From TrEMBL:
UniProt similarity note: Belongs to the leucine-binding protein family.
Residues in coiled coil: none
TM helices/strands, residue ranges: none
Keywords: Signal
Signal peptide segment: 1-27
Protein name: Branched-chain amino acid ABC transporter substrate-binding protein
Organism: Hydrogenophaga aromaticivorans
């Protein structure tokens, strides 16, 4: 296959970065050179319409491993070992993700991570369950940083799968804590991507609106093909014609950016309640029209008002100074810290031994404290809701991607407030 020049350059740069990180660690920490690196297989869409989200993940994981490696790597009885990220391109497709998993296993990688598709995550869980039962000497762990369909830690929960993002129902509850106080809101439009995650978002939105804001009328409720819509103008026209005062969506990547851009161009003046409206081009796409109107929920925002948080964010920007690279995920940093802690406590890289310790991890970074719930392997962490505003406004010290717009935190939930019950009945080895 012939790759465009830009893609070839990206692949080469990524390979050089991974190699240089490992080399630097070994040079700075001679004890770590006694053992091979612990390889983490990142299975993600690195080409296609959502390539920008995959690259954002890669930057975050590299930065997280650099932090571990800078302190000497993962401490094991046989000597310290550095962490290294190996990339596998799923092209945003479940079948390609499963093929990437087979490639990772063939290369004796025992920890894989993925997130930007709940459908792919579901397929990976099934495949890893089968593989681990069939080949107990080559078991694999799955660390999930973004696939948030609630079913993955409920009906489909697995001993080998650990989710480090808040699932969709948790995020929706946090959003509803803000939406239910918008007394002027009477009409809302629900729109999402037509796959398991998008469907679960709209389903939970209908349920929570009925319970918490029964006075709000749903004037639109539709799903669109994922990653296939190039022109959202027809959807924007329907939104405006519906007289909706707000849109609620779980869209991410280009499906979100193109949606909000089309809505702005159509003259929609309502609010957006989003899961991911705080980055990847969305703020710049909507511009001034989003001030006070684009609401997002996340595990962390750069403008969380603490000194530890500010220093953490500034450190990331120093590492990745290009404004286009500005999308830091606290949960991915906590995920890698959790893995390092679990391996050290297990004293081994054996998947079953590490899983037993991952169930009990508690980590803290930049003032953010979180723990893994053993019963369903759902990470319990703070959540925050923020609203878009112009950089320099009170509470908006940092902007997003050099756009001049940032997000002011308006609601914070503790891990206890964000926690929800589960229906997991986990089979344990």
């Amino acid at each position: 296959m012939k790759f465009p020049l830009l893609m070839r350059r990206r692949v080469l740069a990524a390979a050089l970065l991974a190699a240089s990180c490992a080399t630097a660690v070994l040079a700075q920490n001679p004890a770590a050179s006694a053992a091979a690196p612990i390889r983490i297989g990142m299975i993600e869409g690195l080409s296609g319409p959502f390539a920008n989200t995959g690259e954002a993940v890669y930057r975050n994981l590299v930065w997280a491993t650099e932090r571990v490696n800078a302190r000497g790597g993962v401490k094991l009885p046989g000597g310290n070992r550095p962490l290294v990220i190996e990339r596998f391109d799923s092209k945003g497709q479940t079948e390609e993700a499963l093929s990437a998993l087979r490639s990772a296993i063939d290369r004796d990688i025992t920890v894989v991570t993925q997130g930007n598709s709940s459908a792919a995550a579901s397929g990976l869980i099934d495949a890893i369950n089968k593989h681990n039962e069939r080949e107990p000497s080559r078991q694999v762990l799955f660390l999930n940083y973004s696939a948030v369909d609630p079913v993955l830690t409920n009906e489909k929960c697995s001993y080998w799968h650990f989710r480090f993002d808040a699932h969709a129902d948790m995020r929706m509850t946090a959003l509803m804590n803000v939406l239910r106080e918008d007394k002027d809101l009477k009409n809302i439009y629900l729109i999402g991507q037509d796959y398991s995650f998008g469907q679960s978002v709209l389903r939970e939105a209908r349920s929570q609106l009925a319970a918490k804001r029964p006075d709000v009328k749903i004037v639109g409720d539709e799903l669109h093909p994922m990653a296939r819509v190039k022109d959202f103008a027809p959807y924007a026209a329907k939104i405006k014609a519906s007289a909706a005062q707000a849109v609620l969506t779980g869209n991410w990547g280009n499906d979100l950016t193109l949606l909000v851009k089309a809505a702005r161009e159509a003259g929609f003046e309502g609010s957006f309640y989003t899961f991911y409206g705080n980055a990847l081009g969305a703020p710049a796409a909507i511009g001034d029209a989003g001030i006070g109107k684009v609401v997002a929920v996340a595990d962390w925002f750069p403008n969380v008002p603490t000194k530890d948080s500010e220093a953490f964010y500034q450190s990331f920007r120093q590492r990745f100074p290009n404004p286009a690279d500005d999308y830091v995920h606290m949960r991915m940093q906590l995920m890698v810290e959790s893995l390092a802690q679990a391996i050290e406590r297990a004293g081994s890289v054996n998947a079953a031994a590490v899983a037993a310790q991952l169930e009990k991890v508690e980590v803290k970074l930049a003032g953010q404290t979180a723990r893994m719930r053993a019963a369903d392997h759902q990470f319990q962490q703070p959540l925050a809701v923020a609203v878009m505003d112009r950089q320099g406004a009170p509470g908006v010290k940092f902007d997003v991607e050099g756009s001049g717009y940032g997000f002011r935190v308006i609601r914070q939930l503790t891990p206890q407030q964000a926690e929800q019950p589960h229906s997991c009945n986990m089979a344990r080895p």
